[in-house]
């Protein structure tokens, strides 16, 4: 892992690199990081109940991946399913996942306005995807514009401190500077030669950008371990995501806001 200071590279460079790498590793994520899950070891939607009633609602998934979150929404009675993802391979997988449904799927960066209807959706959400954006302000402005007045935006992402945590010999250590925002470069994503660049931001940056955009924040959740792991024991682990770490520090932040 390499921290790159002094600001982002050109966002187009990052997007092109990340798209190629996501196309290569997409198969690792078929059915992963999808509702009702909000993130590794975190409480699920069945526990948090952030979405309320979905029946007859118009839904937009940002970073729709393999389409399994949209499948979840269809099972809850959503009347329209829309999704965008940076990876063409992910979109192809999502089309297969949703082949028996009428889903509107688009391959595009979330930062780009591709003509998604404005003031149209009851719910916009993003499960472990919105943090990939190279332009948080532009992305939040777009997501706000897609929602009807009173509509909800719900997203989850790594807890902003989690990237700095290391587990060594049963202790949790802080590495690097939380105060210094920038990007992290991983030369090998999912163990493959697939370089990705991921922005690092403070939690206050996400919250303040939501406020600036005009959202009203309804809930900020620093995840606890889901009850499904109550009977699971685990020794100290140095893996990036581990139950050992999750029981000591939240893996995930989950925020609900309304227009």
UniProtKB/TrEMBL annotation:
Q: What GO MF terms are annotated?
A: methyltransferase activity
Q: Coiled-coil ranges per the record? A: none
One of the GO BP terms on file: methylation
Key words of the record: Methyltransferase, Transferase
Q: Which Gene3D superfamilies match?
A: Vaccinia Virus protein VP39
Pfam families (UniProt xref): Methyltransf_25 (PF13649)
Supply the CDD domains for this chain: AdoMet_MTases
Q: What region holds the Methyltransferase domain? A: 59-151
> Which protein are we looking at?
Methyltransferase domain-containing protein
Please tell me the species this chain comes from: Litchfieldia luteola
């Amino acid at each position: 892992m390499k921290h790159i200071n002094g600001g982002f590279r050109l966002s187009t460079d990052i997007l092109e690199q990340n798209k190629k790498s996501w196309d290569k590793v997409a198969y690792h994520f078929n059915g992963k990081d999808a509702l009702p899950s909000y993130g590794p070891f975190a409480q699920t939607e069945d526990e948090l109940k952030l979405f309320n009633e979905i029946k007859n609602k118009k839904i937009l998934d940002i970073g729709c991946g393999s389409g399994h979150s949209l499948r979840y929404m269809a099972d809850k009675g959503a009347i329209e399913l829309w999704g965008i993802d940076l990876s063409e391979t992910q979109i192809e997988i999502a089309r297969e996942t949703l082949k028996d449904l009428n889903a509107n799927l688009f391959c595009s960066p979330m930062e780009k306005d591709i003509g998604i209807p404005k003031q149209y959706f009851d719910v916009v959400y993003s499960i472990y995807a919105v943090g990939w954006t190279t332009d948080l302000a532009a992305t939040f402005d777009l997501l706000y514009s897609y929602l009807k007045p009173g509509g909800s935006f719900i997203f989850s992402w790594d807890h902003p401190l989690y990237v700095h945590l290391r587990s060594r010999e049963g202790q949790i250590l802080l590495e690097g500077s939380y105060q210094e925002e920038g990007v992290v470069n991983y030369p090998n994503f999912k163990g493959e030669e697939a370089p990705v660049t991921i922005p690092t931001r403070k939690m206050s940056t996400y919250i303040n950008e939501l406020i600036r955009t005009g959202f009203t924040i309804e809930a900020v959740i620093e995840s606890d371990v889901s009850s499904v792991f109550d009977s699971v024991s685990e020794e100290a682990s140095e893996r990036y995501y581990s139950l050992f770490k999750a029981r000591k520090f939240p893996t995930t932040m989950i925020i609900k806001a309304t227009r």
